[in-house]
Amino acid sequence: MKLERLIGILMILLNKGHVTAKELSQRFAVSIRTIQRDIDSLSVAGIPVTAATGPGGGYSLLEEYTLHKNFLRKEEMQLLNDVLGGLGKLLSQARFTDIREKLNVVSQKSDLFGSGTLRFDFMPWLPPFNLEDKLNKLSEAITARKCLEIDYRDQKGESSHRIVEPYQLVMKDYAWYLYGYCLTKRDFRYFKVLRITSILIKAEGFEPRPLPEPAAFLDFSDRLIDIRLKFSMKAIGRIEDYFSEQDVQYGENCIIVTTRYPEDKWLYQTLRSFGKEVEVLAPLHIRERLRQEAAEIARMYSEQLEDNPS
Fold first, then answer.
1. What is the spatial distance between Cα 99 and Cα 88, in angstroms, rounded to a whole number?
2. What is the pTM assigned to this prediction?
3. Which residues does 157 contact at the CB level (< 8 Å), separation at least 6?
């Protein structure tokens, strides 16, 4: 912990040029006396820290003391900074700020924190109110190597209680997942963060297991079916979000999509979301299922509400 603090103090001195003991004590949540001992340790290590007393006093480094910056090009540092900036908006961890400060030091106070050509924003358009809290709690457990006790609801709506060794947070297809070893199932599992209904960080830690070789995130190969869809021209703006260009054939009055998709809950939800702008041409069992669902919806809305005065 002290070593990390010493490195952090050095980075701040390199970046800001001048800082007071009070600012450092607040930054690292330690006493001013501890900061003074840290400065002494840096001096003993050969770091040229100078101290000034009185108004405007504080700590600084000799001007000729700099870090070598050739190990990263400016555009590489900008890319790292942009990614860390996006993560920092979602995960409230000091390490992201620390790394960005180090990058700024190595760039020798260039315009690294200006507008880059890429912007990373890992927050959904309408983030659930507790997503950030969940991610931070999971990240805390991963860093501390602490087991998690979670309640989880799967795609079918079935709830289960799990004990998990957490290893990674994974973003896939605009969604966050926890990757860990489930002691309940005795295997590595992915848990969609939004389906984790409660999280408890347990006191006991765990010895990291060897992670299996990266495999397909979710293997749908055994559920792929041939599907043919007819869209109205009004759906053109959304079609490109779901289907690749080679699967789409544009006509004068309609759009035909021929592709392969896993038959699961997500497929039916997607087709329903297009409403009357899509017609399933094949396979017939999907067409029939949607027809029955549409009939049930029409029947539900045709029934008069009990509290409707009309």
1. 11
2. 0.55
3. none
Asked whether 163 and 183 are in contact (CB, 8 A), the reply is: yes
- Residue 33, both tokens: 């006396």
Residues 6+ apart with CB under 8 A from 191: 150, 152, 162, 164, 177, 178, 179, 180
How far apart CA 80 and CA 102 sit, in angstroms, is 11
Ramachandran class of 229: left when φ > 0, alpha when ψ lies in -120 to 50, beta otherwise: beta
Nearest-CA neighbor of 181 among 218, 150, 216? 150
Cite the DSSP H helix spans in the chain: 2-16, 21-28, 32-44, 74-90, 94-106, 131-144, 236-242, 265-273, 284-302
Residues 105-159 pLDDT 10s: 555 555 555 556 666 666 666 666 688 889 889 989 998 999 999 999 987 789 9
Structural domains of the chain in order of their starting residue, each with its CATH number: 2-61 (1.10.10.10), 131-205 (2.30.30), 221-302 (3.30.70)
**Are the C-beta atoms of 149 and 182 separated by less than 8 Å?**
no
Q: Which DSSP string do the residues of 3-40 spell out, in sequence order?
A: HHHHHHHHHHHHHHSEE-HHHHHHHHT--HHHHHHHHH
DSSP 8-state code for residue 223: G
Q: List residues bridging with 51 in a β-sheet.
A: 59
